[in-house]
Design goal:
With 359 residues, this protein is an all-beta fold. The chain is built from 1 helix and 30 strands.
Length: 359
């Protein structure tokens, strides 16, 4: 029998910023037309998809831009239809990419001091798909200027965004729900409406393996678990939401959750091997930990927030306060407020204990 795992992260503490250290008056997208998390957090800026704008636009604000955001704040407004996803480049803090219902992916340069004067309408480079909307995008983790995106023509496109060239099209038989790179970008995985999870070899440009995923053809999301190359997916069985850790295509661990209908989004932290699972419209955040020995998946704890979650994003790890045992900082969109929340490990003494968390 496998021994029970022990975790240093069972007791996580959420500390939300006070109201004077939040961003207010943000009319973000309702998310009904988008599969994305509505906002993305970079090292210097936050990008938030807006609701009710002519064409497509998103807001870019500095991390220290607290208080009431003016309704006429400068925006990025170069798309002709609704923006569906935004992502900051992991290689350049001033570059953000967006995708839209207008079937384009565009990259934008944001000045050091943010947007001032007028709306930004001229992009750096534009990448095109087949004419159908592009629902989500993801930067390659190790290769600069490579970005992947899901298009509603049942394809994943891989572009070189500095030149606008399409490098590879991964064809699928049905609508794609999710797309994620592995730790070094040699693989990517997808979930699809045909209920299959596919793992693709980037260099060979073919499916490495595929397996039957969750029982329902409702929205399913996934992410790779860092250097382990395990895949963690969220989805639905016949009557409940569930999460699954795929060690291989035939070796997996599944946990059932509840009967709620909102889609769950997984986020993995390589340093702590902790998974955060968040649903738009939920008021609960769940945490799991991944291990390399059995049992490979363990539920840690859950946290409650006062308002339904409309959007969310994690601050890059380089910007958090390790000295206070902070392991992540989450930005939550609730109503019209964007609130930073510190996630830390509780300690009984004030003795320096940061090193023990990562050993």
């Amino acid at each position: 029998m496998a021994s029970k795992q022990h975790s240093k992260f069972r007791h996580l503490k959420l500390t939300p910023n006070k109201s004077d250290r939040c961003m207010q008056n943000i009319i973000c997208s309702s998310g009904g037309h988008s599969d994305s998390t509505i906002c993305d957090v970079g090292r210097s800026f936050i990008a938030i998809i807006l609701e009710g704008q002519s064409g497509g636009s998103f807001l870019v604000i500095r991390l220290d831009e607290y208080g009431r955001i003016p309704i006429d704040h400068c925006k990025v407004s170069g798309h002709s239809k609704k923006v569906l996803d935004v992502k900051w480049s992991p290689f350049n803090d001033n570059i953000v990419a967006s995708c839209s219902e207008d079937s384009t992916v565009k990259s934008w340069y944001i000045p050091e001091n943010g947007l001032t004067g007028s709306h930004l309408e001229d992009c750096l480079v534009q990448c095109n798909a087949s004419g159908k909307k592009i629902t989500s995008i993801s930067w390659h983790p190790t290769a600069k200027d490579i970005i992947g995106g899901i298009c509603n023509d049942c394809n994943v496109y891989i572009w070189r965004i500095d030149q606008g060239d399409c490098l590879f099209i991964a064809q699928h038989p049905a609508v794609i729900h999710s797309f994620a790179w592995n730790f070094d970008g040699t693989l990517f995985a997808t979930t699809c409406k045909d209920q299959l999870i596919r793992c693709w070899d980037v260099y060979e440009r073919q499916v490495l393996w595929k397996t039957k995923g969750h029982q329902s053809n409702k929205q399913s999301k996934l992410c790779f678990c860092g250097s382990t190359n395990y895949i963690f997916s969220t989805g639905f069985n016949v009557s409940q939401r569930e999460v699954t850790l795929w060690i291989t295509k035939v070796d997996f661990v599944t946990m059932s959750l509840d009967s709620a209908s909102s889609v769950l989004y997984p986020f993995y932290d390589e340093d702590t091997m902790v998974l955060s699972v968040i649903g738009k419209g939920d008021t609960t955040i769940r945490y799991y930990q991944v291990f390399k020995t059995k049992p490979q998946l363990m539920f840690l704890t859950l946290s409650q927030v006062p308002e339904p979650i409309k959007g969310f994003g994690f601050l890059p790890k380089s910007e958090i306060n390790f000295m206070d045992c902070e392991i992540a900082r989450l930005y939550l969109l609730q109503a019209s407020i964007l609130q930073p929340i510190s996630i830390s490990v509780t300690r009984l003494t004030s003795v320096f204990q940061v090193c023990s968390l990562y050993t």
